[in-house]
Structures are given as structure tokens and as C-alpha cells.
Amino acid sequence: MIVYFFQVFVIRSYAQWKKTGQNPFVFSKSENAHDYIGFVFKIMTVISLSVIVLFSFFEDIYSAFLGPLTYMHLEVLKWTGTGILIASLIWTIVAQYQMSNSWRIGIDYEEKTTLVRVGIFKLSRNPVFLGVLLIYLGTFLIAPNAITLTLFVLCYFILQIQIRLEEEYLESTHGQDYIDYKKKVRRWI
């Protein structure tokens, strides 16, 4: 998961900034719903990475305070979670590459980007969000505890809100093209 976040957000953001000269992080500190979602995701990321560190290096603290679901500590679930993490990383990198200059973290209401409908976007209108959701699922399967379960469920609901905000923006920006695209391609997959 650490590799995932570093590759998908840090490296990709830096590459996007170098390529376009624009910061792809468009969340600000306002009180609107969009920026609040960005804030929640920052908190979720810090918590998730903290849980991974505790799970990996401080087993006593992990076991004592994070509510591990010990009945789920099975090798098959850990390997399944690892497979999901790897598949999610590849899926997300491909989706970001196919988005090219249209990729942002958040909604830039000032800018009109190209509507991407090729490649993975023929299968999912939100492949990057699907990748993010799967990363939280994979983490839960590897380190099943009350916090990773809560983060996975919270991620699902927060992404549902973010997707709807982006759909409103894309519909107002691209009009009938986006409406037609919504009819052909499902929200998740």
C-alpha cells in the first residue's frame, strides 16, 4: 500500500506537474463538500499507513489496540489481499496513464479537461477510484482489524460522494457527450 500511494499519488503528481506546469492536487481548505472529501482522504491515508506500520513492525501494539479480527488472519486472505493490491496498482497506473493531462486529484472547476473514453475507461467511468477502493479492500484482507474494515467502508461511501460531484462537473462541462458516455459505461465496472 505504501508503494501504491507513493507511485499513484506522489510520483504521478510530480510527473503531471512537470508535464503541464499545474499542480494536480486541486483540493483546497474551503468548507465545501469537495474539499472536505479531500481532507477526509488525507486523514484516511495517514491512518491506513499507520496501521500498516503497526501491523508490520509492532505486532504487540497492533494486537492490543487495533481490534484485529484474528479469525480472518489466514494465509489465503493475505495472499488474496496482496494480489488485489498488485492488480490495483497496475490498474490505477494504467488508468492514470490513459487519462494523460486530464488526471487530477479533485475537481478543478476552472479548467476543462478532455473527456477520456478509451482503454480502461471503456470498462469503468472511474477506474482510479475503483483502484483506490480495491487498495483498501486488499489492506483489510492482509491486516483484518476494526480500523481497516472501517476505512474500507468509509472509502466506499466517500468515493460514492466524490464520484457524484465529479459526474455533475463532467456533465456540466461536457454535456451530451458525458451523458452518452454514462449510458454506455457503468460507474464502477
UniProtKB/TrEMBL annotation:
Record-level GO cellular component terms: endomembrane system
Pfam family, one: PEMT
TM helices/strands, residue ranges: 39-58, 79-99, 133-159
GO molecular function: transferase activity
High-level lineage: Bacteria, Pseudomonadati, Bacteroidota, Flavobacteriia, Flavobacteriales
Alphabetical UniProt keywords: Membrane, Transmembrane, Transmembrane helix
Signal peptide interval: none
Main location: membrane
Protein location: Endomembrane system
Protein name: Isoprenylcysteine carboxylmethyltransferase family protein
Membrane topology classification: Multi-pass membrane protein
